[in-house]
Amino acid sequence: MPVAIYVSLAVMIIAGAIIAMFSKSLTRAVVALGVSSALLATLFFILDAPYAGGFELSVGAGLISVLLIIGLTLTRSPQEHPDA
Hints:
By secondary structure, the chain is an all-alpha fold. The protein contains 3 helices and no strands.
């Protein structure tokens, strides 16, 4: 495998983490973390670590992202419901 593939995946993973850190919207931050985690799982699969890649894909990109999005949708903001 060319080194350019590893470097490009690493740059995209870091870019996703930076987008998640500086995003104003929590939903965009969760999606950016999910994409970054999926890219990390791809890197693990390329580096012949299928168990680590599968675990990262199922737990990191899947479970954590879904739970955070569910938590965000269930949480009410005072600006959204002024009568509460």
